[in-house]
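Hi all, posting the design record for the shared folder.

TITLE: backbone redesign
STEP: 1 of 1
STRUCTURE INPUT:
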């Protein structure tokens, strides 16, 4: 789009929303062995969203999902039945932008985080949502192939700043034909970013995404970042997260001011089948009037709620037990994708 002299805005997550997308687990996804355990987590997320805005559910069979959801306001639920590989809407979902004020949805390639997992069906979901008349008539569908990009790797302040991680965006099997400078220029071109803040450190054991930024550090408003802090020097994450913290201190807003930093506790160690899971409090979802925070049945849950309240004093902080969710190496933000006001058909 460079040279076309267009104004592109990638809105922040905290702007008013029309709906949130969930892609529902079913017996042909990796959730099959623990489906009865994870469905209640999706139901809890769905109930909180429906209280405040519309919910778009991509699913294999809406009658089964209705039985699981129970008594809710179905006037606020949009069902779209289609084949899916998995449930990670943050990464296969469309990404909302405004181009010269016109709403548009970017449909990037989703290839299972660098071809780690099958994603052929999930990669078609956004296209099929357009075909099924889900988006408002004025929303432009924009096919961004062959660029591979996942929503979990992007944090926008809505003013021209991108917060992201080098580990993910420069990883193999995504866009390795492009060097770092080329990727940054392409992101600026596509999204209208004025600056890209690259985190060089930080990871979570058990994370399949190559360190998506939404597991580590999150923009809460134009000048505030909440991030994972590890105080335990014996924890394998201590050194990298300390380096990340020091880099966050050096970052500046477009007005050349340091960010207000709010540290979130490092979640207590959670293991399953002998493997450490990527439990993180940074994987929260901002919705209309609230923030949905993943919790892990830990004393640290209340500490995380208290810290996040500093960033969102005007929103309700709602904890949702995501212990079942992290058994497939993601959390609450990973299974959701928000769409701003005006994007979903009324």
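Okay, here is what came back for every position:
SEQUENCE:
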């Amino acid at each position: 789009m460079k040279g076309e002299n267009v104004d592109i805005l990638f809105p922040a997550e905290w702007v008013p929303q029309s709906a949130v997308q969930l892609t529902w687990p079913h017996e042909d996804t990796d959730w099959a062995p623990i489906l009865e355990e994870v469905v209640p987590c999706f139901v809890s997320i769905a109930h909180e969203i429906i209280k405040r805005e519309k919910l778009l559910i991509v699913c294999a069979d809406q009658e089964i999902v209705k039985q699981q959801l129970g008594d809710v306001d179905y006037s606020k639920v949009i069902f779209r039945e289609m084949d899916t590989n998995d449930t990670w809407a943050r990464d296969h979902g469309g990404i909302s932008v405004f181009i010269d004020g016109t709403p548009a949805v970017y449909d990037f390639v989703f290839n299972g985080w660098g071809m780690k997992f099958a994603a052929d069906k999930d990669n078609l979901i956004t296209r099929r949502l357009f075909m099924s008349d889900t988006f408002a008539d004025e929303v432009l569908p924009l096919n961004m192939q062959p660029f591979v990009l996942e929503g979990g790797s992007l944090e926008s302040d809505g003013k021209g700043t991108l917060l992201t991680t080098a580990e993910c965006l420069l990883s193999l099997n995504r866009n390795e034909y492009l060097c770092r400078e080329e990727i940054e220029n392409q992101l600026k071109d596509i999204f209208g970013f004025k600056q890209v803040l690259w985190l060089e450190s930080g990871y979570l054991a058990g994370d399949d995404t190559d360190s998506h930024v939404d597991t580590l550090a999150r923009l809460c408003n134009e000048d505030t970042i909440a991030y994972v802090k590890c105080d335990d020097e014996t924890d394998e994450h201590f050194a990298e997260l300390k380096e990340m913290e020091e880099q966050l201190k050096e970052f500046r807003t477009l007005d050349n001011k340091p960010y207000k930093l709010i540290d979130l506790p490092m979640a207590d160690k959670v293991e399953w089948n002998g493997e450490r899971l990527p439990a993180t409090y940074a994987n929260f979802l901002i919705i209309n009037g609230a923030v949905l925070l993943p919790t892990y049945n830990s004393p640290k849950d209340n500490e995380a709620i208290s810290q996040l309240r500093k960033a969102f004093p005007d929103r309700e902080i709602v904890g949702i037990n995501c212990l079942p969710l992290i058994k497939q190496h993601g959390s609450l933000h990973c299974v959701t994708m928000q769409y701003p006001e005006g994007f979903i058909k009324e």
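COMMENT: The chain has a mean pLDDT of 96.
Let me know if anyone wants the other runs.
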